Amino acid sequence: MGKNLIQQKRGKGSPRYRAPSFRYKGTANFARYEEGKTINGNITNIVHSSGHSAPLMELKYSNGEVGLLQAPEGIKVGDKIEMGKDVELKAGNILPLKNIPEGTSIYNIESNPGDGGKFVRTSGAFAKIITKMDDDIVVELPSSKRRSFQPECRAVIGVIAGSGRTEKPFLKAGNKFYAMHAKNKLWPIVSGTSMNAVSHPFGGSSSHAKGIPTQSARNDPPGRKVGKIAPKRTGRLKR
């Protein structure tokens, strides 16, 4: 009898595949924006959240709200940020795309005006405004893909901090496993053909490399000489 695929186990919500959201500091997004008003914010702290790859800055806004947002490079506790249409173009300030010049580095771009930010949110990431039209703003994302946004969508000026995160090697598979486990990311990813027949429809047939012999030659070097070593008889008898 077979068993559930990993995708099916994750979807069921069993404890092994449940995100440890009680450890997360909160949701990183913009404060509510009122048309025509400029909102000031004070950076009260810079925090680490296991649910985010980038450091987060804790903001206290002039309208009384307290929120979290990905911290840009060069920011520090005590700095001020502004959110509005005519604010200064400096790291951390939040403006609508229509008020940001072409070629400016931006991040945390809203998909629809007022949703708090959906695009370009990982450490070290930034996007650039390529073309501005009356009804569309074309932005080049970190993947080099270009996407159109509404002119009223907001974004943060600057580059997200923590850009060197991927340059430090994990060195051990165990370190990688626990880093992924902290964010409920399944690792390692195993292909279906490498599994046993009981675990996946593509599994079985004695090998992950289908159609390639599993036996080793007599003259194979150490390390490759495993399993069936130079067998005298394999497969069907030939008469």
Chart the SSEs and their pairings.
Blueprint: H1 6-12, E1 39-47, E2 56-61, E3 66-70, E4 80-83, E5 94-96, E6 105-107, E7 127-132, E8 137-140, E9 146-149, E10 154-157, H2 173-181
Antiparallel strand pairs: 1-2, 1-4, 2-3, 5-10, 6-7, 6-10, 7-8, 8-9
Question: How would you state the average pLDDT, rounded?
Answer: 88
Order of helices and strands: HEEEEEEEEEEH
**What's the total helix number?**
2
CATH classification class of the domain at 14-77 and 89-165: Mainly Beta
**Alpha-carbon Rg, integer:** 26 Å
Q: Sketch the major β-sheet.
A: 6 strands, antiparallel
Query: Unreliable segments (pLDDT under 50, ≥5 consecutive)?
Result: none
State the strand order across the main sheet. 5-10-6-7-8-9
The helix-and-strand class reads mainly beta
Distance between the termini: 39 Å
Fold-level CATH name of the domain at 14-77 and 89-165: SH3 type barrels
Q: Estimate the global geometry from the Cα principal axes.
A: elongated
**What is the second-level CATH architecture of the domain at 14-77 and 89-165?**
Roll
Indicate the percent of residues in helices: under 10%
Write down how many β-strands occur, each being a DSSP E stretch of 2 or more residues: 10
This entry's quaternary arrangement is single chain
Q: How much strand content do the residues show?
A: 15-25%
